[in-house]
Amino acid sequence: MKTIAIGCDPNAQTRKELIIEHVKSLGYEVKDFGSEDPIYANVAIAVAEAVANKEYERGILICGTGIGVCIAANKVDGAYAALCSDVYSAERAQLSNNANIMTMGAFTTGSEVAKLMVTTYLGASYVSGGRSEPKVQRICDYEKNPAGK
């Protein structure tokens, strides 16, 4: 069973609860990293570290716009967060970019679209060897050796 780490800031608590129930209905196990901390970076980093350390297969982060948690999560080595605003971007986050964390905005994305995005993101799997692989590999290479251009 896939395990999903999820967290948000206080503004997105209601959306997070909806997404947790939806993810569980899809058959996934969920670890809630909370929503009480007004410093969204704290929960974003905690989720990103857990995903990067392979404690959870993927992560979902939510704040007002999804931007702040995306920036914070991407500071963690091995975390690849993608801000998704629609079903297509949720699909491509995985298929084209191998993102292990999806972020979204509670104030910018409706509840039903958010559930569709999550279903799509969790249902998609990156396949090595495709035309996106050199692009994704470049990101990973830079992360490991930023000086080696």
Give average pLDDT, whole number: 93
- Indicate the CATH class: Alpha Beta
Low-pLDDT runs: none
CATH overall fold name: Ribose 5-phosphate Isomerase B, Chain: A
Return the CATH architecture.
Answer: 3-Layer(aba) Sandwich
Give the H and E element order: EHEHEHEHEHH
* Amount of beta strand: 15-25%
Largest β sheet strand count, sense and barrel closure: 5 strands, parallel
Q: Percent helix among the residues?
A: 40-55%
Question: Helix/strand-derived class?
Answer: alpha/beta
- Total domain count: 1
Span between N and C termini? 39 Å
What does this structure look like?
The protein has a five-stranded parallel β-sheet with strand order 2-1-3-5-4, with helices on both faces. The protein has a single domain (3-144), classed as Ribose 5-phosphate Isomerase B, Chain: A. The mean pLDDT is 93. The chain is globular, with a radius of gyration of 14 Å. The protein is an alpha/beta fold and 149 residues long. It is built from six helices and five strands; from the N terminus they run E-H-E-H-E-H-E-H-E-H-H.
Task: Break the fold down into its secondary structure elements and pairings.
Blueprint: E1 3-8, H1 13-25, E2 29-32, H2 40-52, E3 58-63, H3 67-73, E4 81-83, H4 87-95, E5 101-105, H5 111-123, H6 133-144
Parallel strand pairs: 1-2, 1-3, 3-5, 4-5
Helix pairs in contact: 1-5, 2-3, 4-5
